[in-house]
């Protein structure tokens, strides 16, 4: 009989490096300690780099087999990652994520109160979701083609956002962590205009 093992791995691609504002790692806001943390992209700020952090006990288990990676231990990638971590700390991007993220969510909440089709604004720091619905009575998700209209309008005005959610009804707002309040104001103005344009066509 094979023993059942519970293993928790935190994937810190989008919620790591201070993006949530209150914590350096997203999992820290949920009172859990993962067995392993994997990360990429953010640690190299665009330079190809990945990392795995785990306990000494789990790391020791890797000696029981042969593990090979052509790029493992790359000194240039390691130097880049170290510089990125230094910059995050020195520039205070985690605090900026908290401050500008809180400001941005407050401004987006005003649009939620203004428009029937914005159902919710939620998130932490600069990891924000804006839920789009048909109306506040039914709370049904805004259809994909309607989401695409707003999405394309925002893009045409110079801002890139993402989409997510079970029904694709959430606009995902994850700007660079060096964003300013002026940048946030620009985004809110663009998003407001895009939603307004959609409502006029509806």
From TrEMBL:
It is found in: Mitochondrion. Its cofactor is pyridoxal 5'-phosphate. Keywords: Aminotransferase, Pyridoxal phosphate, Transferase. One of its GO terms (molecular function) is transaminase activity. InterPro entries: Aminotrans_3, PyrdxlP-dep_Trfase, PyrdxlP-dep_Trfase_major, PyrdxlP-dep_Trfase_small. Homotetramer. Belongs to the class-III pyridoxal-phosphate-dependent aminotransferase family. Multifunctional aminotransferase with a broad substrate specificity. Catalyzes the conversion of glyoxylate to glycine using alanine as the amino donor. Catalyzes metabolism of not L- but the D-isomer of D-beta-aminoisobutyric acid to generate 2-methyl-3-oxopropanoate and alanine. Catalyzes the transfer of the amino group from beta-alanine to pyruvate to yield L-alanine and 3-oxopropanoate. Can metabolize NG-monomethyl-L-arginine (NMMA), asymmetric NG,NG-dimethyl-L-arginine (ADMA) and symmetric NG,N'G-dimethyl-L-arginine (SDMA). This is Alanine--glyoxylate aminotransferase 2, mitochondrial. The gene is AGXT2.
